[in-house]
Amino acid sequence: MKILVADDESTSRLLAAAAVRSAGHECESVVDGEQAWQAFLKSAPDVVISDWLMPGMTGVELCRRIRAHQSDTYTYFVLVTSQSERAHVLEAMHAGADDYLTKPLRADALAERLIAAERVTALHRLLAAQRAQLHLLNDELTSIARRDPLTRLGNRLALQEDLEQLESRVARYGHRYCLALLDIDHFKAYNDTYGHAAGDHVLRAVSDELVRQVRGGDSVYRYGGEEFLCILPEQSLLTGNYAMQRMRASIEALRIEHSGNAAGVITVSAGLSILDVALAKSAADVLNEADAALYRAKDLGRNRVEQSTASGASS
Amino acid sequence: MTESDPRTPQPPPLTSDVLDRDVLADLRSLEQSAGADFIAELAALYLSEASARITDLRDAVEAGDAPGAFAAAHTMAGSSANLGATDLAALCAALARACQSGDLYGATDALERIDREFERVVPAVRALIGSQ
Asked: How far apart are CA A151 and CA A208, in angstroms?
C-alpha cells in the first residue's frame, strides 16, 4: 500500500517510516497537516498515519478534510496521539478516523493496523469497481432500451426523450426543427407477398438509406412498424421539403422489387411540419400535423412528400 | 523550592534504566528489517535536535511564553519516548500539560529536573550510535 506519514517531529517520522517499510509498504513522510493535505491530493495514499498535534492543522482537521473530499478510493486514517492526548481519539473517530495509535509508536502495533487497513481499502476498491461496472451496465441498458434492435435506429422511447429536449431548446434558444414522418408504401402487402423476413430486410434497407441521406445533426427514429421520423434542425418547411424529396427519391432508387406497389419498387410517402418558437406549438401538435400531411401524401397517390397546412406552419 | 506545592508538576519516580529496555527491544527488532543503521540513525537524529529543543524550552519559559514552552516540551516528550527515554519523556509531558493550561508556575524547577535527566540520557543515546 501507499502510506502517508504526517508528523512534525523528526524521530517519530523516521520511526513510522521504518515500521511502514518493514511491514512491506511504500512510505512518504511530511512534516505538517498542510503538506499532508497536498500529498494526499497528489498521491492518493491508501493509508494516512497522522500525528494529532501538528502546527497549522491538527490530525483531526486533516482527517475531516480528507473525508469531505470526494473520491472513488477510500483512505484509511490512523491518528497518532500521546497518552495525554487520548481524549482526542473520540473526536477523531467521529471525524472519520478508522483507528488510532499512541506514542511512542510500536512497529508491531502499526503492522497490526496496516493489516486491517489493507482489508478495508481492498473492500472499498472492490465496491468502487463494482459501482463503476454497474454504471457502465446501466449506460449500456439505457442505450439498448432507446434503440430499435432491427434497424439500430432510435426507438419511440428515445424519440420521446429527445423531443422533450427539443421542446426546451426551442423555447429557450429559439431553435427551429423540421419534423418529417415517412411511411413505406403498401408495406402490409409487401409482407403478405414476400414474407416477414423480406419485410425486415426492407425495413433495414430503408433505415440504412435514410441514415446515409441525412446530414450531420439530423436524426432518424423508427417511429412504428414501417414508419420513420426524421428530425432536421434549423430547417424551414421549404428546405425540409427538399431534404425529404431527396430521401424519397433515394429510397425509390434502391429498386427493391414490390409488385403490390404502383411504382413496382419500394417507395415512401412523407409528411412534414415545423416546430418553431414563433408558432407556440408542442412537439405532439407538430407530430400530429406531420401525420396529417403524411395521410394526405398517401391520399394523393403515395411516393410523394406533403407538408403541413396547419395555421402558421406553411409560413 | 516549591516541592510541596500541589500545583508543581511532580516528577515521576525514576527507573534504574535511563532508556527503557522494552522500547530498545522493539527498536532492535525493527532494525532487523529496517536496516543495520536504523537505531544509530534514530539516535543521531535525536541528539542533533534535542539540545536545541531544550534551549527553545528554556527560552520560552523565561519569556513567559506558555504556548511556545508547550510546543517545545511536547515535541521533546515525543522524541524522547521514541528512544525509550521514558522518564525524560514523562517530565517533558508533565511540563507540557502545565504549559498548556497556561501555568508556568514551577516550570523552572521542572526545567532543572529535565536538564538533569537529559544529562543522563545523552550518553546512553550516544552509546546507541557507538554500539553499531
From this structure: 8
Judged by a CB distance cut-off of 8 A, whether residue A19 touches chain B is yes
User: Which pLDDT does position B3 carry in this prediction?
Assistant: 46
- Write out chain A residues lying below 8 Å of B33, CB-based: 21-22
Give pLDDT, residue B8. Answer: 56
Given a cut of 60, whether residue B68 has pLDDT beyond it is: yes
CA distance linking residue A305 with residue A272, whole number of Å = 8
Given CB atoms, is A31 within the 8 Å cutoff of chain B? no
Q: Cα–Cα distance between B93 and A104 in angstroms, integer?
A: 12
Q: Which of A5, A7, A8, A15 best probes binding to B when mutated, by most B CB atoms within 10 angstroms?
A: A15
The pLDDT, as a whole number, for residue A312 is: 56
What is the number of other CB atoms lying within 10 angstroms of the CB of residue B113?
20
Q: Which residues 50-69 on chain A approach chain B with CB closer than 8 angstroms?
A: 53, 55
Q: Give the pLDDT score at A87.
A: 82
* Helices H / strands E in chain B, number of each: 5, 0
Residue A299 corresponds to which cell in the numbers above?
391520399
Phi/psi of residue B4, nearest 5 degrees: -90, -10
DSSP of A39-50, one letter per residue? Answer: HHHHH--SEEEE
Which tens digit of pLDDT belongs to each residue from A196-205?
A: 999 999 999 9
List active site positions of A. Answer: 226
Integer Cα distance of A302 and A300 in angstroms: 6
Long-range own/partner contacts, residues A57-64 (CB < 8 A, 24 or more apart): A57/A32, A57/A33, A58/A33, A58/A88, A59/A6, A59/A33, A59/A92, A59/A97, A60/A88, A60/A91, A60/A92, A60/A95, A60/A97, A61/A33, A62/A6, A62/A33, A62/A36, A62/A37, A63/A92, A63/A95, A63/A96, A63/A97, A64/A95, A64/A96
Residue A16 has pLDDT above 70, yes or no: yes
pLDDT averaged over chain A? 92
Q: Which residue of A has its CA nearest to B79?
A: A11
Contacts of A55 in chain B (CB under 8 A): 71
- Answer yes or no: are the C-beta atoms of A109 and A101 closer than 8 Å: yes
pLDDT tens digits for range A85-112:
778 899 999 999 999 999 899 999 999 9
B129 contacts chain A (CB < 8 A): no
Q: What is the reported pLDDT for B11?
A: 53
CA–CA gap between residue A267 and residue A184 (Å, rounded): 6
